[in-house]
Amino acid sequence: MITVNGTAISDEAIAREAQYHPAGSLDEALREAAVALVVRALLLQEAAALGVGESLGGAGPAGDEESLAPEERTIAELLDCEITLPAADEEALRRYYESNRERFRSPDLFEASHILFAAPPGRSEARAQALAAATATLETLRRDPASFERLAKERSADTESREQGGHLGQITRGQTTPEFEACLDSLSAGELCREPVATRYGYHLIRLDRAIRGRELTFTMARDQVAEYLGARAWTQAVHQYIELLVGKAKIEGIEMAGATSPLVQ
Length: 266
Known about the structure:
Layout: E1 2-4, E2 7-9, H1 11-17, H2 26-50, H3 70-82, H4 90-99, E3 109-118, H5 124-143, H6 148-155, H7 159-162, E4 167-172, H8 178-186, E5 197-199, E6 202-212, H9 219-249, E7 252-253
Antiparallel strand pairs: 1-2, 1-7, 3-4, 3-6, 5-6
């Protein structure tokens, strides 16, 4: 039985919580769930001791959504009250920017078209058929590149782009699969993929119509991003330290908390 300052956390509560902690094994998921419930209990107990959350005012940096449940709002208000962070000075912002300039770039922008031959993963026969159809269509496109739009309308399984002759419009990184993006990176404007591209959706024939590569942002342009990142990092560190203080002064039985990572700061 786990207790936090005399308050018990039941095995049933830990089992329910475990569903929110995907892990490599059931034991690991239960361990993470138990840690999360201990941290939650500590924070709610501290909030009660300080009289925080009695009016359930607005939530702080830990989450300001109005839809938060009362206990989550109480925890957010507690952290907002107890943790004060000074704003990073201009020198610190510029120093981080200069050391990490490659992180601060405008996004790459692609204009691309594709023809999709759909086949779900794990369906070997369907995958083989889709690959065969994609390969045959690719051979046709090599002989007659101008037929791309017509073939997309006739054969693509992507109903949205099919009516546009396969055109996807402008896309940025993260809007497609990693395999699709890797293909775009390998192509020059106007070039067609060398072989069908396999993704979880099936096989694609991809044409890069245009690419606008991102450029490095100046410090002035990137300043707000730098400040947001450093602020979030400092908040995470401060919350971790605050929880460690609560753990240190609490009486916790049934679980070893040394080295445990709070779910609030992952």
